[in-house]
């Protein structure tokens, strides 16, 4: 299974719905946000609209477009999502694999939207990246 693909979206939804350890990491998380990677393999930009309500996944929609695309520049619709986090595929993959600390990655990422919502849910969002990184068979 490849990172940031439909297969990963489906597998992560199943994992979050069925694994009590994963559910404990996301307990209480209530936020909808967009995670966008640019310059992914295949010369693509990819974004996932992700939503949680009290730790349960409510949204998990992947969009893929040839790079460079409007996914890079389209502002976040704050009536639907609290925030949008965008960055190079290699950077977000490195953070997910714990090869790069999140704070070190921030310089190459663009964050827009409701920063207070992101900060309030930072532990849950970091846990989500850990969950992605720990998925069995995930390839980058």
Task: Walk me through the structure.
The protein is an alpha+beta fold and 140 residues long. It has one domain (6-133): Nonspecific Lipid-transfer Protein, Chain A (2-Layer Sandwich). The protein has six helices and five strands; from the N terminus they run ααββββααβαα. The protein has a five-stranded mixed sheet with strand order 3-2-1-4-5. 29% of the residues are buried.
In round numbers, the mean pLDDT is 94
Tally of contiguous helical segments: 6
Uncertain residue segments: none
The helix-strand sequence is HHEEEEHHEHH
Lateral strand order in the biggest sheet: 3-2-1-4-5
What separation lies between the terminal Cα atoms? 9 Å
User: How many structural domains can be distinguished in the coordinates?
Assistant: 1
Radius of gyration: 14 Å
Beta-strand content = 25-35%
What is the CATH domain class? Answer: Alpha Beta
Q: Can you name the CATH architecture?
A: 2-Layer Sandwich
CATH topology tier name: Nonspecific Lipid-transfer Protein, Chain A
Overall shape: it is globular
Helix content: 25-40%
- Number of DSSP strands? 5
Name the CATH homologous superfamily.
SCP2 sterol-binding domain
Please summarize what this structure is.
By secondary structure, the protein is an alpha+beta fold. The chain has helices at residues 6-18, 20-26, 89-96, 102-105, 115-120, 122-133; strands spanning 31-40, 44-53, 56-66, 83-88, 110-113.
């Amino acid at each position: 299974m490849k990172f940031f693909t439909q297969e990963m979206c489906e597998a992560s939804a199943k994992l979050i719905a069925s694994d009590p350890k994963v559910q404990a990491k996301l307990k209480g998380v209530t936020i909808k946000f967009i995670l966008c990677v640019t310059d992914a393999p295949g010369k693509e930009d990819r974004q996932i609209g992700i939503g949680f309500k009290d730790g349960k996944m409510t949204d998990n929609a992947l969009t893929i477009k040839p790079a460079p695309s409007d996914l890079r520049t389209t502002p976040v619709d704050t009536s639907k999502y609290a925030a949008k986090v965008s960055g190079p595929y290699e950077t977000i993959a490195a953070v997910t694999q714990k090869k790069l600390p999140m704070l070190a990655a921030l310089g190459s990422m663009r964050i827009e939207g409701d920063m207070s919502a992101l900060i309030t849910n930072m532990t849950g969002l970091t846990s989500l990246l850990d969950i992605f990184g720990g998925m069995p068979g995930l390839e980058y």
